[in-house]
Amino acid sequence: MYNVATADKLDVASVTAGGVTVNAQGVSIAAPTAHNPANTVSLSPIGLNNGGQRITNVAPAKEGTDAVNLNQLAGVGNALQNNIERVGKKAYAGVAGAIAQGSIPQVTRPGATGIGVGSGYYGGQSAMAIGVSAMSDGGNWVVKGNFSANTDGHVGVGAGALYQW
Fold first, then answer.
1. How many C-beta atoms lie closer than 10 Å to residue 148's C-beta?
2. What is the pTM of this model?
3. Residue 113 domain boundaries
């Protein structure tokens, strides 16, 4: 057994034990092989170089500056995809409503008033519409109002007027 006395403060330029080196530039670990220096893991003032290796067993992030793991990232991707699909369904239902309203025939004789229905289908969504139109006795004015209901549970309302000469 040997006893070695040291001072309270030991100052050395570098310490190497096995493949681990600690010096003023940081900590480096020659791994997984010493034959390929690109695989050396190092922690220095400019950051962490993990030598092309995965960082495993990362806990879920809690703070904005924490690293995230694949499960968290996949969860965000799934939520985004679900939102996109939900918005797409709503948009398709809205288009179906517009098609339904546009499919309602309107009156063509001066002085006439009529009620009509229309239906629309787009992207797997459908809608029904009902509307009323009227033409002035002189045939110069046409007014029309309608509403639709689609398979996504939304209602659309439209109105218009036309003056012709």
1. 29
2. 0.63
3. 93-163
Per the rule left: phi > 0, alpha: psi between -120 and 50, beta: everything else, 21 is beta
* CATH number (domain holding residue 40): 2.20.70
Tokens of 114: 């009529």
Q: What is the model's pLDDT at position 107?
A: 96
Q: How far apart are CA 93 and CA 128, in angstroms?
A: 11
Strand extents, DSSP E, the chain: 14-17, 20-23, 26-29, 41-44, 47-49, 113-122, 125-135, 141-150, 155-163
Shortest CA distance to 112 belongs to which of 141, 90, 92? 141
* Same domain assignment for residues 47 and 107: no
What are the residues whose beta carbons fall under 8 Å from the beta carbon of 165, sequence distance 6 or more? 140
Structural domains in the chain (count): 2
Residue 5 lies in a domain: no
